[in-house]
Sequence to fold (335 residues):
Amino acid sequence: MIRIAAVGDLHYGEGSREILRPSLQHLQDRADLLLLAGDLTRCGGPEEVKILADELRGLPIPVVAVLGNHDYHADREAGVRRVLEDAHVQVLEGEAAAIDVDGVRVGIAGTKGFGGGFRGAHGSDFGEPEMKAFVGHTKMLSDRLERALAGLDADLRIALLHYSPIEATLEGERLEIYPFLGSYLLAEAVDNAGADLVLHGHAHHGVEKGRTPSGIPVRNVAQPVIRHAYNVYTLDARRQVLAAAAGGIS
Amino acid sequence: MTEPRRPDYLPEAIREKLIHDPRVAEQDLRVEVREHRVMVGGNVSSPQLKQRITEVAKELLPDYEVVNETTVVPAAEPDGEEPVS
Fold:
């Protein structure tokens, strides 16, 4: 059984010191991996993420992250990424990582993702250059996510996002802002490539649980939603292998 | 801050200022204004951030009473785990 701890939207900045650290002390007894679903900072400052990085430094389990929209606000996302990597946090953007956990290969493909909306009401890259850029950004990141997931050679595959791939985990948010909270193109990428779990943040007023159209579990781990330092999800690697084998036979 | 010409637009102007003030930078706040009272609600990640919201709102509108109704989200360890497969 692989135990995945996950949280997003920590929004570290001045005054955040020690918010998470007390809850991380027993993390290695409860989880094999920690995944961070973006918005790690308040304004995208490397000095903000340094506070979080110092709390994560030395954790005995691997930590993998994607960045969120807040982490881009200061146009210093490269610096944010560097500070995290210096603390041995692996940061993914259109990339994948495979981590061996007791002989089980856990693959994680990550992207910030972006908005656009959901089936039947998604924006199109049509009209003004600004609109083309908006939807084009989502398409590019979704394509990269699909390629990263499909290229993973792993026993378990997890998609780690900031923006939401589905509407179900946005329930509680105002409908008017759905196009700024996620895009169905992210779900389509995951459904095309296949995965065992999708994690995202960004929707602070949403709900935790949903599924992609093909039935892959989705969890919104935004900290204001889970209201804990992290949540833990377990995946049975043997069951996934058996399911894959059965699928192969039929 | 310079108040909008029409009071109908004041809550959104305050909300925008709170989003763009690096001491707050929180996009999920609700702002209401009644008479000379500003009410701010929503979730925040720390008691320090809650305090900053009050300070920044008072700086923006020194002649208004600020009622900070934001909630600090708990961040304790989870009780259990969820099997997803």
